[in-house]
Write a structure and sequence with these properties.
mainly alpha; 142 residues; elongated; 52% helix; Arc Repressor Mutant, subunit A
């Protein structure tokens, strides 16, 4: 199982803005920092802002920042937002002769639920509590 790039980029934007919360961050600097396309980040930031996790400010002195404290940003909520909660296997999408007897769907649903329970135990602040993580994310020259 692998998270989408959209989820990965969403977490990176949240990490970056949370660590550099003393100022507004620009898309271009985040794109440069992570070597990601600005256009990809624009979609990510739009989604996070629309969901209330980021504030955006237009104009020459504009940028983005967290809209809520990092301790209030639950990792399971972010992953559910960015990935959706569709089943890992869609047994209804096409007919399958194994469907009446197959237990895989239930096992995968349990695994997905276990992952979300684990993620629900952590906030963005928990991840950023590591001094090494913070030191890698803090930008001093701006």
């Amino acid at each position: 199982m692998q998270l989408s790039r959209f989820s990965d980029y969403s977490l990176r934007v949240l990490f970056y803005t949370a660590t550099n919360n003393h100022r507004l961050c620009q898309l271009a600097e985040i794109a440069d920092f992570f070597d990601i396309s600005v256009e990809h980040l624009r979609k990510v930031v739009h989604g996070l802002a629309k969901s209330g996790y980021l504030e955006t400010f237009r104009g020459k002195k504009g940028g983005i920042r967290l809209a809520v404290p990092s301790a209030d940003i639950n990792l399971a909520e972010i992953i559910a937002l960015t990935e959706g909660m569709k089943p890992l296997v869609d047994c209804t999408g096409q007919e399958c002769c194994l469907s009446p007897a197959c237990g895989l769907k239930n096992i995968l649903a349990q695994a997905q639920a276990a992952m979300m329970r684990t993620l629900a135990q952590y906030s963005l602040a928990d991840i950023l509590d590591d001094p090494q993580m913070q030191s890698r994310l803090i930008v001093t020259s701006r």
